[in-house]
Amino acid sequence: MSDLTIAKVETRLLDVPLFRPHGFATYTATAQPILLVSVTLDGGVTGYGEGVVPGGPWWGGESAETMKVIIDGHLAPIMEGRQVNELAGIMADFERSVANMRFAKAACDVAMHDAWARALDIPVRDLLGGRVRDEIDVTWALGVLPLDEAVAEIEERIERYGHKSFKLKMGSGDPAVDTARIAQLAQNLGGKVGLRIDVNARWDRLTALRYLPKLAEAGVELFEQPTPADDLATLREITTRIGVPVMADESVCSPADALAVVKAQAADVIAIKTTKLGGLQESKKTVAIAEAAGLACHGATSLEGPFGTAASIHFACATKGISFGSELFGPMLLKESYTTTDLEYGDGVVKLPEGPGLGLEPDWDKINHFTRN
Ligand code: MUC
Ligand code: MG
Prior knowledge:
By secondary structure, the protein is α/β, with parallel strands linked by helices. 40% of the residues lie in helices and 20% in strands. The two termini are 37 Å apart.
């Protein structure tokens, strides 16, 4: 077995254009900043992770730039010189030295899983408990778009990739106008596909209680984080009063947050982003808590590129509790990717990439092209 000593940790900022702008509640992304983290072992093997947030610091406060500072200055020195199969010990040492910063820790956690699995010549899924599934449903997300553009994109995505459900971003404009747009879209689609909404925590209680029932009437099948993360009482009120399943996203950024949501009976589904939760091990703990309480978990995305998305696919393919499909579409939103092979999307699913580690190899020409000077 090759030497598992971590020889060096490197980071580089990439700016990867999207094929179209992606409008969130308070930010519109036209490119995705991605911090590519490389962990190289003495044995010569290199593993990759991605420091990614959905577009920028509006979502949770971290950004690719803050992650570079934290990893270069504080997390890399903890990793270098250690054995990569001390991963749990390294992650514990992260906690002693750096509070929070879970997106940054997740990038390191994934890169170490990739390096370790490659050194053992096994897929990352085997380090996470082994095979549960080989593919997972993929919901496609539309940013805030005018009705006709939304219908056209949905029809095109159904045709090309067979998506069976779609997530629609809300929260950026007048709630009445936003709600009418989504209700009309639901009517135009006539139940052909599932429609979900994500307000990214930007509606207050009264707005949510006023407009979510209209979206329920229109047939929306899931409300993702309609109201602020810390207000679990309102999330519970929405969950119990309106009857449409509620998914907690911003409310759950750690296993402890998941326990709080369970105790408050505040949601039916938890969005499992391996990024916001601080990596694959922390995500396993979070799913275990949700599963024990009968909550479903969804393989969620922070719009990662290929390496980060592959890590979440390996996670979902090794975790029975990811029982509510996924939205692991990140690489499809990029105008171009930066690995020598692409993840395989089709018939509404994405497949687990074959091969050791994450199953993808870097395309250094593309990476150099996207690297920020
Ligand atoms: C989020 O909050 O869900 C996931 C898909 C999308 O369009 O936004 C991200 C972040
Ligand atoms: Mg969300």
